[in-house]
Design a protein that fits this description.
Blueprint lengths: L9 H13 L5 E5 L6 H13 L12 H7 L6 E4 L9 H12 L8 E5 L7 H12 L5 E7 L7 H4 L3 E4 L5 H10 L8 H7 L3 H9 L1 H13 L5 H7 L1 H4 L5 H19 L2 H18 L4 H16 L1
Parallel strand pairs: 1-4, 1-5, 2-3, 3-4
Helix pairs in contact: 1-2, 4-5, 8-9, 8-13, 10-13, 13-14, 14-15
């Protein structure tokens, strides 16, 4: 059965399955949702179904198209990704256009998936627009994004939008268990995952840091400020991913606010958010962390 190994978004599964089985696909899609929730998996499975030679119950997993697809050698399928993890360049879109101009080899259609499409340069976006305006009858282009606001309005207007919801926490825990990963994570850590399997794996990789953050918050009202500064090496040494740790601090404070309904937790969230903004505007990093901890300590003491 199609999509059976992909978690969540059951309604989208029904819609995409119906489109593939009826062979009534539009030429362009825009799939919107957080990173790590399975959009790429959905796109790959949908492409396999569209390219399958069988007339119904796609994918059949037996025809030449399905066999080539599983072997990652299908001539009518291509994924375009940021080359340097920062941008999708015009040269990549031009190459895609060259391939689109060629007739399908194995299937009756050709499918192109552009991941992180919000990372296309302006030149790449304008280049893609030409293809979206007059796509070949056999071509299907799927754009994936976590931030549709960065895409040109003229591109979005030519695509069928689909929204992908975050994965439920119970499904994330089930996935971790099925893949023999650590399921001993706190409710706060699950909130940090934001319904994303990809983010859940990153949280596990840095679980110790998140535990240290919780320990700092737990002790901030019982220890002196010098001790708190000394315990906070996890923050001082995390310049590259400080945003995620500050977000986690806010999550912990928010949960405390819900439990105890005390204004100091709301004030703490404001302090953390102001610190995040200072760091984003290139304020002195160590001084920003110093001030963060001091302001939090004063709020709780």
């Amino acid at each position: 059965m199609a999509f059976e190994n992909i978690l969540g978004n059951e309604k989208n599964k029904e819609i995409l399955n119906s489109i593939a089985q009826s062979e009534n696909s539009v030429h362009g899609y825009l799939w919107i949702g957080k990173d790590g929730i399975g959009k790429s998996l959905f796109a790959t499975e949908f492409a396999k179904m569209l390219l399958c030679e069988k007339k119904e119950q796609k994918p059949c997993n037996k025809c030449k198209s399905c066999i080539e697809f599983d072997a990652k050698s299908h001539p009518d399928f291509m994924i375009i990704e940021p080359e340097d993890e920062k941008t999708i360049k015009i040269e990549q879109i031009r190459y895609m256009q060259e391939k689109i101009a060629e007739k399908p080899v194995t299937s009756t259609k050709k499918v192109y998936v552009i991941t992180n499409s919000e990372l296309m340069t302006r030149e790449a976006s304008n280049c893609l627009l030409k293809t979206l305006e007059e796509p070949p009858s056999y071509a299907i282009i799927i754009l994936l994004t976590s931030n549709e606001s960065k895409l040109l309005a003229t591109i979005k207007s030519r695509l069928m939008k689909m929204y992908f919801a975050p994965i439920e926490e119970k499904h994330i825990l089930a996935y971790l268990k099925e893949n023999n990963l650590d399921t001993n994570i706190t409710k706060n850590m699950l909130k940090q995952c934001e319904g994303s399997i990809g983010k859940a794996i990153k949280v596990l990789e840095e679980k110790e840091k998140y535990e240290l953050i919780e320990d700092i918050i737990k002790k901030i009202s019982t220890e002196d400020i010098t001790t708190i500064w000394r315990k906070a090496d996890v923050l001082y040494g995390a310049k590259e991913n400080i945003t995620s740790l500050l977000e986690y601090m806010s999550i912990v404070m928010y949960q405390k606010l819900r439990e105890k309904n005390e204004i100091k937790y709301a004030n703490a969230i404001n302090i953390i958010e102001k610190t995040k903004q200072r760091i984003l505007t290139n304020a002195n990093y160590d001084m920003s962390i110093d001030n963060l901890l001091l302001e939090l300590w004063e709020e709780f003491n």
